[in-house]
Design a protein that fits this description.
five-stranded mixed sheet, single chain, 5 helices, about 30% helix, alpha/beta, two-stranded antiparallel sheet, about 25% strand
Length: about 170
């Protein structure tokens, strides 16, 4: 009985603005109660490496991210696919966001492209993921963008078992 609210904040080529992301985050927070929005997952971002041992995390949409987090919405974001070993992309580095890297389940290792560092929170399958593809059919892809939805699904199941959990407890 899960319902998905898909918000597109980037254009057809995958480009966009932080203002568009902020508007999407604000929409989810504003409509969290009537639409029962409990989980957000983001497969976007850039820059870096950001984090405690790298450059400071930007603050483009931090107010909106923190507001959603404080309103009980679990947020995860792909850590990025640059192979950094000392930080993650934005918004994965932001306070209140769970950063997600990718594993290779065939070799049972962390995927070589995954951005790593002390700011990486969780890992999930992200290589050789077959999923529906834009325009129809299926495609096998890899990346931290394939891993982040796994964590969002687990978060949704945890909320189903106990709706009073906090985003930090879920992480």
């Amino acid at each position: 009985n899960v319902k998905i609210a898909a918000l597109k904040v980037m254009n057809e080529s995958g480009s966009g603005t932080w203002d568009a992301l902020t508007a999407g985050l604000d929409f989810c927070t504003l409509y969290a109660q009537p639409f029962n929005i409990k989980v957000m997952t983001m497969s976007l971002g850039g820059g870096g490496p950001y984090g405690k041992t790298a450059s400071p995390c930007p603050n483009y949409s931090n107010k909106a991210l923190l507001t959603a987090f404080k309103n009980g919405i679990f947020i995860d974001a792909a850590s990025g696919n640059d192979g950094f070993n000392n930080g993650v992309n934005y918004p994965a580095c932001a306070t209140g966001v769970t950063s997600v890297g990718a594993t290779d389940d065939i070799s049972d290792t962390i995927a070589s492209f995954t951005n790593l560092g002390i700011d990486l929170d969780l890992l999930a399958p992200g290589q050789f993921i077959t999923a529906p593809y834009l325009g129809g059919g299926f495609q096998t892809l890899q990346g931290t963008s394939m891993a982040a939805p796994h964590i969002a699904g687990v978060a949704a199941l945890m909320y189903e078992l106990n709706p009073t959990l906090t985003p930090k407890v879920i992480e």
